Amino acid sequence: MAEGSVSFLLSKLAQILEDEGQLLTGVRTEAEYISDELEFMKAFLRVADAMEERDPSLEVLVKKVRDIAYEMEDALDDFKLRLTHDRGRRFFAPLLRSFDYFVNLRARHQIASRIRAIKSRVIGISEAHRRYLIRNNIMGQGSTFSSISRLESQGDGLLLEEADLVGIEKPKRQLIEWLLGKKSGREVVSVVGMGGLGKSTLVKKVYDDPDVKKQFKFRAWITVSQSFKKEELLKDIIQQLFRVHRKPGPKGVDKMDYDKLRTEINKFLQQRKYLIVLDDVWHTSAWGAFQHALPNNNCGSRIMVTTRNTEVASTACMDFPDRVFPLDPLSQEESWILFCKKIFQNNTCPPHLKNVSETILGRCEGLPLAIVSISGVLATKDKNKIDEWEMVHRSLGAGFENNDTLMSTRKILSLSYNDLPYYLKSCLLYFSIFPVGNPIGRMKLIRLWIAEGFVEGKEGMTLEEVAEDYLNELIKRSLARVVEATSDGRVKTCRIHDLLREIMITKAKDQDFVAIAKEEGMMWSEKARRVSIHKAVPSIQRRHVASRLRSVLIFWGADSCPDSPAPNLSFGHLRLLNVLDLEGAPLKEFPSKVSSLFLLKYLSLRNTNVNSIPSSISKLLNLETLDLKHTQISELPVEILKLRKLRHLLVYRYEIDSDDRIHTKYGFQPPPQIGSLQSLQKLCFVEANQGGDLLLELGRLSQLRRLGIVRFRKEHGKALCSSVTKLADLRALSITAITDSEFIDLEYLSSPPRFLQRLYLTGRFRSLPEWLHSLDSLVKLVLKWSRLSDDPLLSLQHLPNLLHLELVQVYDGEMLCFQAKGFQRLKFLGINKLESLRVITVQQGAMPCLEKLIVQSCKELKRVPSGIEHLTTLKVLEFFNMPKELIMTLQPSEENGDYLKVAHVPDVYSTYWNNGILDYFTLLTKEDGNCALSSPSGSRRDYIWKRVNSQKHKPTPTLNTSIKLLPRVSESLAGKLKVKPPMSEGVVTFLLTKLADFLVERGKNLAGVECEVEYISDELEFMTAFLRLGDTMEDSDPVLRCLVKKVRDAAYDTEDALDSFSLSHASDRGHGIFSCFRKIARSIKDKRARRRIASKIQSIKSRVISISESHRRYCNKNNIMIQGSSSNSIPRMECQRDALLIEEADLVGIEKPKKQLIEWLLGSKPGREVISVVGMGGLGKSTLVKKVYDDSNMKKHFKFRAWVTVSQSFKREDLLKDMIQQLFRAHRKPDPKGVNSMDYNKLRSVIHEFLQQKKYLIVLDDVWHPSAWHAFQHALPHNNCGSRILVTTRNTEVASTSCMDSPDKVYPLNPLSQEESWTLFCKKIFQNNICPPHLKSVSETILDRCEGLPLAIVAISGVLATKDKSRIDEWEMVHRSLGAGLEENDMLMSARKILSLSYNDLPYYLKSCLLYFSIFPVGNRIKRMTLIRLWIAEGFVKCKEGMTVEEVAQDYLNELMKRSLVQVVKTTTDGRVKTCRIHDLLREIMIAMAKDQGFVAIAREEGITWPEKVRRVSIHNAMPNKQRRQVASRLRSLLAFWVADCNYESPVRKLFSSRLRLLHVLDLEGAPLKEFPKEIVSLFLLKYLSLRNTKVNFIPSTISQLKNLETLDMKHALVSELPAEIRKLQKLCYLLVYRFEIDSGDRIPTKYGFKAPAQIGRLLSLQKLCFVEANQGRNLMFELGRLKQLRKLGIVKLKKKHGKALCSSVERLTNLRALSATSITENEIIDLDYVASPPQYLQRLYLGGRMKKLPDWISSLDSLVRLVLKWSQLNDDPLLSLQHLPNLVHLELVQVYNGELLCFQAKGFQRLKFLGLNKLERLRMINVEQGAMPCLEKLIVQSCKSLRRVPSGIEHLSTLKVLEFFDMPKELVMSLHPNGEDGDYLKVAHVSDVYSTYWNNGNWDIFSSLGAKLEDKHSAQLTPRMIKRNYTWK
């Protein structure tokens, strides 16, 4: 059978063909072709499904085959639907049937056409696969460092140190106790649990325990795994055993067969005491392969088995069922210890991270593997930035794909999925549909699986029983987990581990198995077969693709959209739907369109307010499940009888009496002849008061498994008994009388159903029916209202399988006696309302298995049951609403009480009903017998029951208007590109992924050219797979490079064709009088456009085939593959070795870092420490570390040393062998025998064992990825010998991961200083190390380009050393041609290759981002947010679940910084990157690469032209020539960088023409523009528009034509109002319209915003909105609350009256990260007290305006990092409210406080780094207590005219680096004079920089207050510092 969900789908299609073949008259040939093709697909997928993860090219092909399979299913289902006509028996029926005949002919013609198109596509896909991959012999092998096999991961656990483990002691002690037990026979001990729990690690620690080693001399450890070879493992056992015996193995062991090997082992162990571990056993067959080889002797031998499968464990321990050890997840406490141990140096979590840490840890659910992996990710995050940690939490699912550390966890957990048979894979994937934390009802899940077609019939079993088997198998394999079980042992609810669910979501998404919609307006791929909508989606605004959907499941949030109107659901486009689950939907009527869903199998309207079912339901002829539980329906139409496939009919509801915990049921009136529904298996609950005929009808339902009847009368008894006798398969029966006094007569039942398991009888009995005691299968019995005179226990006590017994008003006697040997298996007993009962007696031997006993409302029972002490298994004893006398007898202090009788019971409760909730009182616990009756123990708990029908429905979410899921041609094509981003490398790959978005946006207009677009979509995917591999190989293969270039050109042509086509549909014809004629003209134009694109795609198709043929003709056919010039290729390893051979005399600036590293290495700590040296390529990391490694002190201290160069493409086994050789050579011993044939795990074990007691130094040089570190770390033991590991890397994540236990041992190697650079430069060029004066200027200019990079300095020096030193022009030429020199000069080429390695190692999505830096001019400081928005507009950034696109882009930037490629230029005080750049030489390399790929052209000179294929142009203060039309028409981005004094507006306007019509990005920041260029509005595809820093003052209404605009940046333009038409830009995310003006005496700018149009809340995509003028009224403030996606909001001109409206909106903006609110004047009060629940993640808050007091909610902002308050004029000290904000880093107070004293209290402001105090005019004193502001780095005090002395206690601020006084009184400044009497000089002596600053004629004069020593202490004259700086503010 083929594997996975694809295979299931194909087998299902084969069945469809079989079932519907008779309808295919006229298309028989095509149908047979489909059938044949399916068979071949199955054969292919059987192999490919397991291999695709390892082979990207095969992955593409599998995806294509899956798409075709889906398409075939759609075609056949559609055909089936078209042939469905029910004309009935009306008058015109014959005429209509004749009409149907012609309709059917048309349907057959259409299906034939579709099948031929599919056939053509199959052939095309096969050709494309051959064309790109097979013919070019490119089949991916996968990356070495990222492939972590099961056995390797297993080995990691075996090498862990015990000190690193948590929670291991108790299980270890238990297992050792079992192993060392006194039984002489052979015993098997199994450890079972899900993957990642640490089973192997635990057993290895047991195996290595000294006591175990002492007891078992003959031992062997065998790792079995999934795909094992029996013979190989048996040989391994023999080798291990004979090695222990110190004897050579048996002769000819290598040639022995399986039986001979088993005999040999059996014979050897026959008289010996042995311990054999079989680790990682997956199947019972694996146990069977070994068990008979291990003799069952009487020597006390033991076998240990570890497995994920409970069936394996129980099979292995068949003779020892008590020796199965289920390894549980870690407890909450243990999880927390492990989590902190792995992240925080002192094992203590900082308070500000505790909440988010606990949330993340909750997702791990105690799984050690997950905790360690996620800890590894978090350890690399900034512990000061809570938002980074929050992002990890939100994006945990996406992290499994993109993070190496989490990827290993994914692989471990995925192994269990991969091992599943195909039919279980779909079932496990289905768990991804349900929301996180949602327990899933067992029967609901089973019915859904059946409706989806996952369950295959088995002879002798119903589908439900087969599905139950499937679920049990998933539970056995430790994949599904039981959440709640019934008292009789059945699974009630289940779920899967949260991390496994994330992995299933990813797999389901990749396979188009399901799309999960969590947000409003979310789009999904057309190929998705299922949609799961989580929580409320009030309005699905856009027309989602629905024509292919098979299932829609909606999970409504109870708190979503209250007060919304009832929905009007429209299902017109869901015609192929099989499953529709609307449980809990706010529906009052049955959705009329549901009746048209002919193929529907499952319909749930559970928990809705629907009160009637229409007769049209009869159209749902395929319906199998109709779930109307807890609706208002009480009657079904007679037409329901037509649903002959109906299996489950649930129509009932419960009501619960407040003092009774057993429900009252209400059923429905069924139609007559309900017996015709002969497929029914569950029928609940039928109202019986319609007479005996109905009950006789029930006897016809021979398939019934469960039957429920209510409103039963005595006279119905005979008819019902007659029917029940016929229901031989009945498993559950429930009968409820019409009243509590009505008798139910069941004595006529002579032969009850043999397999009846659950029986519920509610009604009066004279005596219990005789047949009751014969129910040998009965496990649950509930009796109610019986009112028997005789003790019922006598009839029931010998039921052999009874587990659950409830008796409610059953017995009128005074005594119940549970006799010895009665109820031998009973686990639950409930006794309720036995009102005459006085005594309960339990004889010894009765109920030996009872676990829970509940006694309720037995008012005469005053003592606990006599003999209750015999119930030794009792765990819970609960008394509900019982007499006080009974409760008092349980008091420990009560004389003659019953306390001792129940002392053995862990939990004893007394419970009372109190105002609608249940109050629980703990009467006794095992640990504390002193309980007080009057007070609840612990907390009072609300007891929540199942839904109470009498309660009103809680407000639930609704859908506005209707859900319209309409087909879009393009998404079927785009889904294939978009669902899983292709992994090909470089900018070309990005381009191909981007095309998916084009198809989504414009494909709806492609009707008529679907085939051409299908072709081009398939072709692009194969191009992607080819380029993924070809892009990394082209540098070494010129022929391949040529092919890559041609394929790239074809891709560009495709993009142009699609964009041009979409543009032709862009115009809006409006609603004018001539709109009809315009539409006709548009229709004609559209047809012409379709013909053009069809022709264009055909042309591209021919070109692609021609390219492929040319490549084959000239290269493959002649077997010519050029390998590249050896002179130009300098491998990484060679460059690495060059660095290691440099003499120390040739080095500069090495002494300080060398000294520091040696100091760390020789430190006194005995534990193993890791030291990392990190920096960009070319800094000399390896050179530095080699000098440290060779230092004589190092050699003296570390006798066991090894140097291993890892590099990018390393082979772990080879490096480990090299390490062994170096270590053994140092020990002067020969290498271990057989080292060359050892596998990875064995090599690690050898190293680990050798180094266990030795002091060693290992250098891991040039480590690129965390996975490379993980490959070695467990081989190097954590001994206490003072061992050290040195790591060099370019990646900060590698550095922080390897130094997780010693984060202070990361050494960032910085570039050389200017002086060091000059020394090295001169040393390499000039003989006497002195530069001639005439070359000094040009030398300094060239040297600046090197930016302190030693590699670059040496390389450029090598070039200059060959130049004539007398000719300055030659040196100038080198400077001007530096970029070209990197390609043409051998010396510079080596530098380029070193720097290019980091680029080549990037994943595809980061390559485009790094190339983008080439766009910006040299020396340009690039703003972080500008860069991020540009990346987004260019389409480089792909969505990740749980993250905004902006957050993903921020992650991209962080990754580039971690890899030492991007440098931070400036950060904000709260730690965010403000501006960044890349090294100048790296930029030159990026420019060269971007040019080669047509990525960008740089225009630096007047009149320049650019290549025809280029996609972007960057203009650096120049005006290019007018371009040819075809050249400009291909441009996607135009960015112009202007100098400040540029003044030629007219040439700027020449840039705009229709030739730029495909533009996406237009950045004219700083351009000399005074008006908005009118040509811009015709750029329909534009996404990014910046007119920042221009003089544009007006935006025209025609901007509404830019429908795709995402960013509109008008910052520092002169625009003050936006047109109403701006609201049409529904994709707008960033709207920046504001400017600053700075008062000379105030450093906080005054902001000016814009007048927003009414109803700005329509712009639902907005994430940043700055700055809106509030003085347009409260309606505007309310509107802002609709912008749910807002991250940053700025408001100016706020008035007091706006406060309430603004607060209401802010509460709804739950995603808000930054809020700025400024009043209209400084005296205007802003009232923000109405915010009850501020945004949880608010990080930056700016409030400008008067306040009576600070709002209370500010002190609750745990995420706040930056706070600026201005004009507040408070009378109370604001510090009291702010000092405990846990994450506050930046605080500015401007005119905030009118008091005279500010006191910073001890332990306040624990993380504050910046403090600014401004214009506190009455302030006379500042006190800083010891312990306040322990992290403060900068303090600025400004314009506080009454403050005459520095802050008291400032000397406590030991971290203070900068102290600045602006415009402060002369007395304060003079007090800092060193010679001043009673001055404060000594108080601030520890501060590095102390300044006094004054405003002077438009400039800030800065004086160094400590830098000038005045001779005359009375002098008032201050000496200015050397440099007078212009201080420019934002």
TrEMBL record:
<dbReference type="InterPro" id="IPR038005">
    <property type="entry name" value="RX-like_CC"/>
</dbReference>
<dbReference type="InterPro" id="IPR058922">
    <property type="entry name" value="WHD_DRP"/>
</dbReference>
<dbReference type="Pfam" id="PF23598">
    <property type="entry name" value="LRR_14"/>
</dbReference>
<dbReference type="InterPro" id="IPR044974">
    <property type="entry name" value="Disease_R_plants"/>
</dbReference>
<feature type="domain" description="Disease resistance protein winged helix">
    <location>
        <begin position="1415"/>
        <end position="1485"/>
    </location>
</feature>
<dbReference type="GO" id="GO:0043531">
    <property type="term" value="F:ADP binding"/>
</dbReference>
<dbReference type="InterPro" id="IPR041118">
    <property type="entry name" value="Rx_N"/>
</dbReference>
<feature type="domain" description="Disease resistance R13L4/SHOC-2-like LRR">
    <location>
        <begin position="549"/>
        <end position="878"/>
    </location>
</feature>
<feature type="domain" description="NB-ARC">
    <location>
        <begin position="169"/>
        <end position="348"/>
    </location>
</feature>
<feature type="domain" description="Disease resistance N-terminal">
    <location>
        <begin position="987"/>
        <end position="1073"/>
    </location>
</feature>
<dbReference type="InterPro" id="IPR027417">
    <property type="entry name" value="P-loop_NTPase"/>
</dbReference>
<dbReference type="Pfam" id="PF18052">
    <property type="entry name" value="Rx_N"/>
</dbReference>
<dbReference type="Pfam" id="PF23559">
    <property type="entry name" value="WHD_DRP"/>
</dbReference>
<keyword id="KW-0677">Repeat</keyword>
<dbReference type="InterPro" id="IPR055414">
    <property type="entry name" value="LRR_R13L4/SHOC2-like"/>
</dbReference>
<feature type="domain" description="NB-ARC">
    <location>
        <begin position="1151"/>
        <end position="1330"/>
    </location>
</feature>
<dbReference type="InterPro" id="IPR032675">
    <property type="entry name" value="LRR_dom_sf"/>
</dbReference>
<dbReference type="Pfam" id="PF00931">
    <property type="entry name" value="NB-ARC"/>
</dbReference>
<dbReference type="InterPro" id="IPR036388">
    <property type="entry name" value="WH-like_DNA-bd_sf"/>
</dbReference>
<keyword id="KW-0547">Nucleotide-binding</keyword>
<feature type="domain" description="Disease resistance R13L4/SHOC-2-like LRR">
    <location>
        <begin position="1552"/>
        <end position="1860"/>
    </location>
</feature>
<keyword id="KW-0433">Leucine-rich repeat</keyword>
<dbReference type="InterPro" id="IPR002182">
    <property type="entry name" value="NB-ARC"/>
</dbReference>
<keyword id="KW-0611">Plant defense</keyword>
<dbReference type="GO" id="GO:0098542">
    <property type="term" value="P:defense response to other organism"/>
</dbReference>
<feature type="domain" description="Disease resistance protein winged helix">
    <location>
        <begin position="433"/>
        <end position="503"/>
    </location>
</feature>
<protein>
    <submittedName>
        <fullName>Uncharacterized protein LOC105128333</fullName>
    </submittedName>
</protein>
<feature type="domain" description="Disease resistance N-terminal">
    <location>
        <begin position="6"/>
        <end position="88"/>
    </location>
</feature>
<dbReference type="InterPro" id="IPR042197">
    <property type="entry name" value="Apaf_helical"/>
</dbReference>
<dbReference type="InterPro" id="IPR003591">
    <property type="entry name" value="Leu-rich_rpt_typical-subtyp"/>
</dbReference>
